[in-house]
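ok here's Receptor-like serine/threonine-protein kinase, seq below lol
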Amino acid sequence: MLKRNKFFHISPFLLFVSTGFFLFHVVLSTIPLGSKLSTEENNSWVSSNGDFAIGFFNRADEPNHYSVGIHFNSESIPVSEQTMVWVAGAEITVGNKSYFQLSQTGELVLVDSLKGVIVWTSKTSQSAVVSALLRDDGNLVLLDKMGTVVWQSFDNPSDTLLPGQNLSAHKTLRAASKNSVSSYYSLYMNASGQLQLKWESDVIYWTGGNPSSSNLSAVFTSGGILQLVDQILEPIWSVFGEDHNDTVNFRLLRLDVDGNLRMYSWEDASKSWRSVWQAVENQCNVFATCGLHGICVFNASGSPECHCPFKMTSDPNSKCFAHDCKSAFSMVKYEHTFLYEIYPPSDSVIITSLQQCKNLCMKNSVCTAATFTNDGTAECRMKTTPYFSGYSGPSLSPVSFVKTCADPVAVDPHAASSSSAKSPAKNSYRLCIPCLVGAASGTFVIFAVMQLALGCYIYTRRNLIWKKAALAYAGSNSKGLMMLSFAEIKEITGNFKHQIGPRMYRGVLPNHQPVAVKDLETTIEERKFRAAASKIGSIHHRNLVKLNGYCCELGQRILVYEYVKNDSVEKYMLDEELSKKLTWRRRVDIFLGVARAICYLHTGCREFVSHGNLKCENVVLDKNFEAKVSEFGLGMVHPDTSRIREKDVEDFGKILLTLVTGCLQVEEVCEWAYKEWIQGHPERAVDNRIDDGIDLQELERTLRTAFWCLQTDERMIPSMSEVVKVLEGTLTVDPPPPPFTSRRLPAEEESLESGSEP
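and the structure came out like this:
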């Protein structure tokens, strides 16, 4: 179920096996009453621009079973990629000689001729429909004589939204029924105005938007944005595709058969669809993503796959967890694995210990498996059905036990003895002394040679095996830091082969977890460096890059961080095309994330922690363009701690001004930007690569905050907690004096009067 190509998840509506799908007789523009499509004639109705068509298609997995639907029809899209965007009746199929017609009563009907029944209808026979039209946006509409739309396919979605299409509170997207699992996935809007992905009617595994009493609807825009809008179409919540506002000819939003909601864009260069956003970043977090076929794990390339470590049979069609034991059971332990029931989705939870969790399931005749959360909650989650699934990964703490059939030989010791009983016992033997001596000598020689060979092998391989074993264990230990040798650092980075930044390299741990390795240019004392690394490793915040390990030997001072997919803010600002992806909203979110991270370091830890080297190069962006600050805390190991708080705030002010103006050389634009602001033209200081509009109130707050942060009089610099409150709009800020005029010589220090903070 997790198998998909590089860019596009395969759907039963994507591939059209029969070349007859692309139909020969075409009806353009207005569709009059009585118009008919049939499986025999292979005709279709096409939009005026030719981008969309509606007609029959033969399902790839069901020969001679047809459905009717709307698909892309543009000549720029190859036949194999002309995916379905709407299907009449969703999963309804008909046989040969069937037809789809706009009847004389103004009703769309799908007729199965072999059965002689109408299997689907638009129910518009009383709506005075006079014609139909497939619009250029892919919307099939029924019109009355005044041209008013009385029914449209956009109001009756299947698994896809097209640009301009909305999803109201009473509508649902449902994944295609490719198998017994996928049809249980749906996207709907709850009573609080939130989008939710759910399994059946009980399990919600993703929520988008904030609770609201407003009457909201979801809209997918042509610019690649999924929004929740109110009654006056004001956006309340938005998510952006990574190519947001880029020139893209075709887009779609679809609930795929693997239960994930994805945004796709058509790439003319590669002639393929590319996923530019997905709701659930980790596919293994989609409920029942593996169905009855095992647990979700990540392979060596970082892609999710379904594995079945519990199956005792070679039959590929058998369920992963099903067992029909004729003897005793045993409990098999699986580390770093979380299991949950899917039929029904309701675990029985007991508060107990790890060993008791295992014993309780073993003694319970209906228990099939148990998971101990191992996260401090002491939860034992019992399963009483063979229909369960789960996920596994080295960073997970849960421990699971699966009840499996015991070894038949161990369970039934009589089986072994019965065969030997068939041989008649012999009470007397004739001994051959020379034979015994020869056999013993030969056995000794063979044994000695094997021992020698084994000893040599162990001696030559022991260090490497232990090293890799220790590294893999450390990589999977979410509660500690890896302490790596320089040789291990060279191994995981491929001898520093893949450089991703200044003295920063990409590496891969033995458990296939990607990491970023920073080679520090420093001669910090070993004791201080280890203490600092240990302290940094204990700091966790959503806007801070997590430290996974370090190397401190042979004069090497190296840090191993979690790997963040996108590049640094600096790279985005230097690249003309990449910078356009940093919209005003994204830039606001970035500097707010950085501000919260630095504020947490200053006030949220048990003791003050400085960054010491905050700059755009050290702010990286994840897949969703959320900012994460790296290389923090190294200032604590330096003897000079004067102005460390003020330096962090000043450096943050430079990042603010960089994100607003687009210029990395803040010293060159600070005076100009202040002049534009003080003269009442703050918008002139904004990076001209931002073309999606700006919020002038946010811009005013941002510039004022930046100029306060850049004051060289330390007594005038605000704290990071004040900065966060101002940027969030919960604290007002006074107009700042020119930051460049407060620069002074050391001799003037005592003559200056204290300033006030915002």
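fwiw The two ends are 56 Å apart (CA to CA). kinda neat tbh
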